Structures are given as structure tokens and as C-alpha cells.
């Protein structure tokens, strides 16, 4: 029964992470350039259990069978597909039509990548992200908002799954990308998040039901342990 408590505790831990992930997706449904993410869980390998209760003297090996100790988080997968596009009245807003990412200068000196073109203007009239990261031109310089046709540096990646999230909409790359000359940038337009709110609410309700099932199983396990320790022991 102690093993069952351990297994249920691990299941509840996975469910908590799934609930936190779903809540983050829902909270960013209106965040421009946000990419939804899903938690993939993995079942532990099966272990063969045994004891020594076989034979006339209860001292021979008895194979009980297989037991799985629970589930765990295997990986977090981001859906890098495009969100919906909408027109705006701001000249500083930009959207990428294609697979490219805007390049931004991070405080560490590294290059960051984002689909969130909801840019701001700093005191130098340069386009910056909402975090304050300077947006880079093809020449690697800051982009002046007063330019009529700014030339953004765009990068695309063969495997977008290699991108690492830095905040909600900015990424760093573990594998270098290549210069993107095919994607087009449109001003006064923004790419929204790709969160499907119906799917997220369905996932949230399913997670809540799984919480309830595991809590009931945990209560049953606790009751059996209580009987073993408080009632059966009285006969000896």
C-alpha cells in the first residue's frame, strides 16, 4: 500500500504540472506571438515484484507480477504553428508572413528570436520588444521607427523544436538558423497567439477529473493503511 501512495503522489504531481501549463496557455491567449505548449507524460517501465511467502514454510520465492510505479513528465512540446493575423493602426506593429523570426539583441549580447511584432519605441526612436530588447535590421543595427521601409533581419530554423523559450514570446536557439529571405514583413499587422481556448478548457476539465479520481484512490489507500495499522494489529 505504501507503493500505491507513492504512485498516486507521482500522478498528482504530473497533473499539477499539466494544470499549470494549461493555465499559462489560457493566460496568454491574447499575447501576440505566443506559442502554445503541451506536456507529454511518460509511464515508468514495469518492474517485476516478488516476495518469499511460497512453499510450506513461506520462505520460497513467490513472483507477484509486474508493477508500474507511476507517470512522469517526459517533455514539454511547443506548437510553433502560426497564430491568427489582425490589422492594427500602429506603424510600430509588424507581422511576419512565413516561417521567419525577428532578431533581437539580448542583454547578454546573444541574439533572441520572436514572432511578437508588437514593438515599442524607445527614447532613441528605435524599435524594441516589450521586454526592451532592440530589434535588429539586416545589417545588425537598431531599426529607426522613422524609416519608411525597414529591412528586418529574419531567421528561420529547420527544426523549430530546438528553440528554447526565454519568457513568453522570445526564444534562443541551440542550433543556428539561416537567413530567411522568403518570409515577408507587414507593418500595421500583428500575429496573435495560436492558443485554441476550446482545447485548453477541455484539457483543464479532463485534468480536474483525473485529480478527482486520483484523490479518491489516495483516500482509499489511506483507509486501508489505517485499518492495517490500527485494527489488524490488535489480534496479535
UniProtKB/TrEMBL annotation:
Coiled coil: none annotated. Residues 12-35 form the Flagellar basal body rod protein N-terminal domain. The keyword Lipid biosynthesis does not apply. The keyword Metal-binding does not apply. Residues 187-230 form the Flagellar basal-body/hook protein C-terminal domain. It is found in: Bacterial flagellum basal body. It comes from Candidatus Vagococcus giribetii. Keywords: Bacterial flagellum, Cell projection, Cilium, Flagellum. Belongs to the flagella basal body rod proteins family. This is Flagellar hook-basal body complex protein. It comes from the Bacteria. Residues 95-144 form the Flagellar hook protein FlgE/F/G-like D1 domain.
Amino acid at each position: 500500500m505504501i507503493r500505491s501512495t507513492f504512485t498516486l503522489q507521482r500522478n498528482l504531481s504530473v497533473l499539477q504540472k499539466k494544470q499549470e501549463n494549461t493555465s499559462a496557455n489560457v493566460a496568454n491567449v491574447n499575447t501576440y506571438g505566443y506559442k502554445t505548449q503541451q506536456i507529454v507524460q511518460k509511464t515508468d517501465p514495469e518492474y517485476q515484484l516478488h516476495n518469499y511467502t511460497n512453499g510450506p514454510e513461506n520462505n520460497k520465492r513467490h513472483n507477484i507480477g509486474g508493477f508500474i510505479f507511476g507517470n512522469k513528465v517526459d517533455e514539454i512540446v511547443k506548437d510553433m504553428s502560426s497564430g491568427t493575423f489582425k490589422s492594427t493602426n500602429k506603424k510600430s506593429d509588424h507581422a511576419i508572413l512565413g516561417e521567419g523570426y525577428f532578431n533581437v539583441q539580448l542583454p547578454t549580447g546573444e541574439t533572441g528570436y520572436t514572432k511578437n511584432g508588437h514593438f515599442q519605441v524607445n527614447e532613441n526612436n528605435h524599435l524594441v520588444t516589450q521586454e526592451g530588447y532592440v530589434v535588429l535590421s539586416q545589417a545588425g543595427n537598431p531599426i529607426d521607427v522613422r524609416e519608411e521601409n525597414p529591412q528586418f533581419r529574419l531567421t528561420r530554423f529547420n527544426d523549430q523544436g530546438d528553440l528554447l523559450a526565454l519568457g513568453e514570446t522570445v526564444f534562443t536557439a541551440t542550433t543556428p538558423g539561416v537567413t530567411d529571405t522568403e518570409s515577408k514583413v507587414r507593418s500595421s499587422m500583428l500575429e496573435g497567439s495560436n492558443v485554441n481556448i476550446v482545447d485548453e478548457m477541455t484539457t483543464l476539465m479532463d485534468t480536474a477529473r483525473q485529480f478527482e479520481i486520483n484523490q479518491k484512490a489516495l483516500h482509499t489507500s489511506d483507509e486501508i493503511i489505517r485499518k492495517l495499522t490500527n485494527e489488524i494489529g490488535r489480534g496479535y
